[in-house]
């Protein structure tokens, strides 16, 4: 009998919030999830922006190794990964895989790959089959440029999406989700929390179509809507409308997953790491409005820039001297006598990784200093949010039709998955 496992990567979910939402809004599929067998996970990393981040922890799960061994610290660095991911290892044993949106994941030379959709931020990766790149185009552009999008680029990406829908997606297949999305927007308006939730709602239907078509041994789907909502819309004393919509969408996604998978198929739903509520603690996250304009304004000569998920970017250069000058410029930038950026040289390329280094509240009149000159902070940067959720190293893992330990380091899940397939 063919062994199959579906890994649902419900990023950073807080179990208590799921319980509260399921009870308050009578969400049957979330209740079903909460009734499944449970394991507790933990990470070797304890500090957000220093390893306790999803782009690190999911690599740990996919490779079976903690950060100290896989050394992938940033989103987009996975092209330098030297350890095999679980789907590569299974492929070497003639077992097939279908990967959908897995964070900081790479296809590499995976054998028996049925389909592979990279996350929107991992710029080194493309999708297979190739037509999936038309679906990826819009989320990839918007996820990197949502503060200052180009209308022309948005239109081109949207046309690619329409092209994919016409050529590959039966409208009737996802009609419930599409009409539900329209209803949500008409009655609630649109913001990023709602938009990202609706994206997961439509995306998971396409994933289920591909899963049914190709029937891989290992299937993985990554869902980020709840993590985003917890970061930005999680109130201590009530569930606001944005969170309510997100929880209801998660319930719909789980319902479709429960209905689609085989009764004997192994299922794991995990968060990799958790979140705790930090509403009111003035934990501020800032983002570059337009990083290319910022670097040009600072007279930094670069050839290419890739903006990442939150407040970080990779920037590449044609000349080593330009890279070194940029490193010095960014490294010494200060605001309120504190360093504005964390800056690193990239391995194996003429490039830098840089990240905003401040989480304190910055006033409208505040300036930063570069090369002795003062610049208005909010001319180049925007307050993304005052965080309502922050990362914690402990997580949860719900499962059925597979044997797992009651407690484990999150990266050790790799061994249990490998054992499930290879030691029959």
Task: Describe what this molecule looks like in 3D.
With 424 residues, the protein is an alpha/beta fold. The protein has helices at 15-25, 28-34, 54-63, 67-70, 86-91, 132-145, 151-168, 175-188, 192-214, 225-233, 241-260, 291-297, 320-331, 377-380, 413-422, and strands at 5-10, 37-42, 97-100, 113-117, 218-223, 266-270, 274-277, 284-288, 304-307, 312-316, 334-335, 338-339, 341-345, 351-356, 367-370, 373-376, 381-386, 389-392, 394-400, 407-409. The strands form 5 sheets. Strands 4-3-5-1-6-19-2-20 form an 8-stranded mixed sheet. Strands 9-10-14-13 form a 4-stranded antiparallel sheet, covered by helices on one side. Strands 12-11-15-16 form a 4-stranded antiparallel sheet. A hairpin with a 2-residue loop joins strand 11 and strand 12 (338-339). Helix 2 packs across helix 11 (241-260), helix 6 runs antiparallel to helix 7 (151-168) and helix 8 runs antiparallel to helix 9. The radius of gyration is 21 Å and the shape is globular. The model has no long low-confidence stretch (mean pLDDT 96).
- Secondary-structure-derived class: alpha/beta
Strand content: 15-25%
Report the total helices: 15
Q: Can you summarize the main beta sheet?
A: 8 strands, mixed
Helix amount, in percent?
25-40%
């Amino acid at each position: 009998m063919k062994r199959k496992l579906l890994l649902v990567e419900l990023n950073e979910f807080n179990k208590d919030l799921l319980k509260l939402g399921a009870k308050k809004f009578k969400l049957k599929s979330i209740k079903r999830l909460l009734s499944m067998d449970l394991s507790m996970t933990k990470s070797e990393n304890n500090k957000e922006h220093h390893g306790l981040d999803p782009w690190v922890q999911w690599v740990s799960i996919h490779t079976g190794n903690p950060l100290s061994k896989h050394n992938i610290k940033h989103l987009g660095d996975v092209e330098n990964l030297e350890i095999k991911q679980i789907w590569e290892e299974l492929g070497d044993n003639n077992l097939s895989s279908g990967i959908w949106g897995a964070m900081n994941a790479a296809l590499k030379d995976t054998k028996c790959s049925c389909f592979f959709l990279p996350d929107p931020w991992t710029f080194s990766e493309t999708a297979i089959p190739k037509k999936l790149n038309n679906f990826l185009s819009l989320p990839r552009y918007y996820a990197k440029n949502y503060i200052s999008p180009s209308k022309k680029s948005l239109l081109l990406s949207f046309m690619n999406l329409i092209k994919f829908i016409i050529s590959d997606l039966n409208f009737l297949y996802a009609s419930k989700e599409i009409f539900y999305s329209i209803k949500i927007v008409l009655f609630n308006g649109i913001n990023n929390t709602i938009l990202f939730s609706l994206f997961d709602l439509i995306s998971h239907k396409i994933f289920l179509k591909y899963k049914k078509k190709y029937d891989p041994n290992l299937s993985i789907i990554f869902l980020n809507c709840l993590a985003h909502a917890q970061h930005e819309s999680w109130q201590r004393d009530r569930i606001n409308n944005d969170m309510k919509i997100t929880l209801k969408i998660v319930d719909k996604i789980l319902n479709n997953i429960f209905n689609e998978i085989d009764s004997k198929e192994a299922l794991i739903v995990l968060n990799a790491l958790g979140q705790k509520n930090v509403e009111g603690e003035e934990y501020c996250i800032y983002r570059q409005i337009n990083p290319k304009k910022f670097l040009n304004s600072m007279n930094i000569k670069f050839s290419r820039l890739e903006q990442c998920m939150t407040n970080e970017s990779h920037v590449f250069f044609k000349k080593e001297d330009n890279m070194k000058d940029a490193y010095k410029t960014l490294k010494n930038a200060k605001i309120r006598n504190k360093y504005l950026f964390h800056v690193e040289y990239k391995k194996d390329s003429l490039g830098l990784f840089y990240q905003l280094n401040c989480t304190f509240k910055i006033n409208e009149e505040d300036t930063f200093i570069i090369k002795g000159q003062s610049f208005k902070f909010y001319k180049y940067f925007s307050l993304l949010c005052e965080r309502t959720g922050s990362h914690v190293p402990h997580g949860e893992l719900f499962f059925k039709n597979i044997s797992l330990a009651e407690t484990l380091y999150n990266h050790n899940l790799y061994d249990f998955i490998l054992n499930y397939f290879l030691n029959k």
